[in-house]
Give the backbone structure.
Amino acid sequence: MATLHLMVGLPCSGKTTLARRLEVERSALRLTPDEWQIRLFGQDVLDPEHNARHDLIEALLWEVGARTLALGTNVILDFGFWAQVEREDFRARARRLGAASEVHYLEVPEAELLRRLEARNTAQAPGTFQIPAELVRAWLAIFQAPAPDELRRRE
């Protein structure tokens, strides 16, 4: 049975690093919207169009992911999934396609997130956004960590 893997966490929590490992271990197609957005639009985090662009990219990647699951191949959505309702929506989509789903949550304390963010911003690593620390602090206030029951695999 194909499995949809949802990567959950804030920027610098290690989602993409884990997703890259899982794509090899689980023979999965990894879909990371940040990589696509940076290649298409550059470092646009502060651009007023950033969120609209990001939403369009995620929608397109889901279309690819849904078809891939339907074909019987595992898929990793490296979207962040900050809200519980969004996670449940994608798990229901997977179920309708006959796929299982798993949530991979990377819980990282605020101080460590900010330390990693500073290092990432300084390194200017390709494929990653340069994000102001004040944005991450604001996102911490709206992020909904998964409840323990969300972390169970669903068939």
Summary: The beta strands are 3-8, 28-31, 74-80, 100-105.
